[in-house]
Amino acid sequence: MEHVIEISGLVKTFGSVRALDGLDLEVHPGEVHGFLGPNGAGKSTTIRILLGLLRADGGHVALLDGDPWRDAAALHRRLAYVPGEVNLWPGLTGGEVIDLLGRLRGGLDERKRADLLERFQLDPTKKGRAYSKGNRQKVALVAALSADVELLLLDEPTAGLDPIMESQFQQCIDDFRDGGGTVLLSSHILAEVERLCDRVSILREGRVVECGTLAELRHLTRTSIHAELATTAADLATHEGIHDFVAEGHRVDFDVDTELLGDVLAHLGTFGIRSLTSQPPTLEELFLRHYGDEVVAEPQPAGATS
Amino acid sequence: MTATGTFLRAFLRRDRWLVLWFLLGTPTLYWTQAYSVDGIYRSQAEFDRAAAAMGDNAAFVAMAGPARALNTTGGQVAWQASAFGAIVVGLMAMFIVGRHTRSEEETGREELLRSGVVARTAPMTAALLAATVASAVVAAGVTGSLLLYGLPAAGSWVLGVGVLGCGVAFGGVALLAAQVTTTARATYGLTGAVIGVSYGLRAIGDVSGGGLSWLSPIGWYQAMHAYSGERWWPVVLLVVLGALTTAAAYLVFERRDLGAGIWATRVGPDRASPRLLSGLGLAWRMQRSSVFWWSVGMLVGGYAYGAMGDDVTTMMGDSQFSKDIFAAGGGADLLDSFYAVATLMLVLIAAGFTVSSALRPHSEEQAGRVEALLATGLSRARWYAGQALVTVAGSVVVLLAAGLGIGVGYAAVTGDWSAVQRLTGATFSQLAGLLVLGALARLLHAVAPRWAPLAWLGVLYCWVILMFGELLEFPQWVIDVSPFSHLAAVPAVDMRWTPFLTVLALAAAMSTAGLLAFRHRDVH
């Protein structure tokens, strides 16, 4: 199996809304793949198509070498899913739901079940209607993580968890990856993504706009430069790769495309540098750039992987 | 009372379509009675004869109300429409109160609302006011339509004001139920039970001539004697009931936490029983209490019919009119015809179970609980089949209860214990039609989920055909659309297996078509 998930040109429309518009995604075996993007970008829709709940209108989708629509039930025995919003049956206890989902998936690991209940400090005797949002989420997590599967599809699985539980979750994902499992993790929590994901894909308006390791993606964004120069340097504003240029006397502030950093610094040197601070791009800036309404003229993703 | 007005406006806005439907439907219920009565009888003498026969008929009295001035159009309207009008407006008030109180709390939206600058009681006060305003609108519609028809003013006003009173009374009951229970479903269940018991009490009271009708809000409404010497004071009883239940609701509300009822949530088992662990097991677990309570209800309801014994013959007399009314039964023997019709009525009440059970997959999907299930090894077909099987099996059980009830009731009065088997068999002869109604719900859910609740129109249709099919002389094809029109009306006529099996096959075909459609659509 070359790819656990292989999607190309995926299209899904709801009425006149084009939720997915030619989405491409590859998830390699054994990796934790971050799936990022603003609300409504199509993350959940993609995951629901992978689960065979929604039918694709176009494109090609392969999941664990199978067709997620046709072979849904058989494939589901090899994966576990945690939705972003967990709806439990009001009259069933958490323990009953865990057992039910486990059995329907083809059995669960008793030892893992007990261990996870302990780790997440979940009371399995409460009825579904009595759980808080965080606890409902835990029920779904315990059910998914105690299954013996190859792939986890997680759609914002930690929304509503406190930081201690969040770290328990990260530990669980580490263990799962160490055991050879593959994860597709949709998340808005950047620290979680940075900590867990080997590669990420960023979605916008139904297509993947960036894909690569975090290091590669960082390369695509801008470094902030604050410098004090020996002379005024107004013409810097027009130099290739420089943005948001502000000059105040001899002091200049600007952002530079990280790819062109060397070039710009060499040019800056000609003005005589008195002092220089540079700030590498934060993950947040990376995402905000893609999440924002404005799509900045972007370097080609292909350039990142070269 | 900060923000109560804001809530009221928002609620009425959300409810405007619901209220519009009730505003169209309820006055129509009254108005069509006047219209049809005036259409049927050519002479006052004929009207008098029919009225006498109807008034002497215990089954009719049990169904509609105390017989007063039945030989007048107004009297007929009050008699035929008031009990159902009270139920309809009661259900409307219940839905309006329930959806803005317990339902909001259950889904957690109430928390968001109450964190704003609002009085704690503002949403519930506004919900009750919204139900009252809606009842008043419907009441005005009733009075207006009857006045326009040209019926006497005093009686028309009494019928309308009584509708408002019933809305206030049952709205208060719903408000209290919303405080006591923890789910909207249970709120509706409890309120519906109160409405049902109110109807049942007045049915027994009206037939037996005892005072039981005075324990029923519907009885109070009918005690206002529209078009037959109106009296206004019983409406005070309705208002007092509304006020008392509302006061009790506020008392409970002040003593409970957000999201809680008055009973603390009990803990349950930490492990699932093996019987739960399949699509079928889950479907049964979700519906078993509903099957149980419906069975109890049908047993009691059936008993009430059966307990009329063979007095039915004397009550109906041998007027041509009685024979016509029970023509739906199709038999020569009046007693058998009566039980054929009574059986059909019980079966159509049981359709309430069948259709709500068949719509359960729809509500599960709406609540977002299907996604997690179908993301496991459970295939769509197995999930669907498990749900369908529970609906079918549950319908059989509920019908069995109805049949046993009517049979045992009859046997208890007459000592004829062979009736148990005969009348249970009669009830079962209608099973195929019941399953078609369930299959219709299933098919709608599979093909056009948004329209699934329209399956209730199927029940309404069959009901109208049964009650008025012969009387209003609908075209034959209109009558034929109802699956029950094809089934033998046992015990008035002998069981006919060919139509039974054909209708059964139709139900199976519709369910299968539903399954095929469900496998090919998006699940949300």
UniProtKB/TrEMBL annotation, chain A:
Recorded protein name is ABC transporter ATP-binding protein
All residue ranges annotated as the ABC transporter domain in the record: 5-230
Q: Which UniProt keywords apply?
A: Antibiotic resistance, ATP-binding, Nucleotide-binding, Transport
Question: Record's GO cellular component, any one?
Answer: plasma membrane
What species was this sequence derived from? Nocardioides pocheonensis
According to the UniProt entry, where is the signal peptide? none
Keyword check for Nucleotide-binding, yes or no: yes
Tell me its family: Belongs to the ABC transporter superfamily.
One MF term in GO for this entry? ATP hydrolysis activity
Pfam families for this protein = ABC_tran, DrrA1-3_C
> Which GO biological process annotations does it have?
response to antibiotic
Q: How does it sit in the membrane?
A: Peripheral membrane protein
Alphabetical list of InterPro entries matching this protein:
AAA+_ATPase (IPR003593), ABC_transporter-like_ATP-bd (IPR003439), ABC_transporter-like_CS (IPR017871), ABC_transporter_ATP-binding (IPR050763), DrrA1/2-like_C (IPR025302), P-loop_NTPase (IPR027417)
Location(s) in or outside the cell:
Cell membrane
UniProtKB/TrEMBL annotation, chain B:
Tell me which positions the record assigns to the signal sequence: none
Give yes or no: UniProt keyword DNA repair.
no
Transmembrane among the record's keywords? yes
Output the superkingdom of the source species. Bacteria
Keyword terms, alphabetized: Membrane, Transmembrane, Transmembrane helix
Membrane spanning residue stretches = 77-97, 118-151, 157-178, 190-212, 232-253, 291-308, 338-359, 388-413, 425-444, 451-469, 497-518
The protein's name in its UniProt record: ABC transporter permease
What organism does the record attribute this protein to? Nocardioides pocheonensis
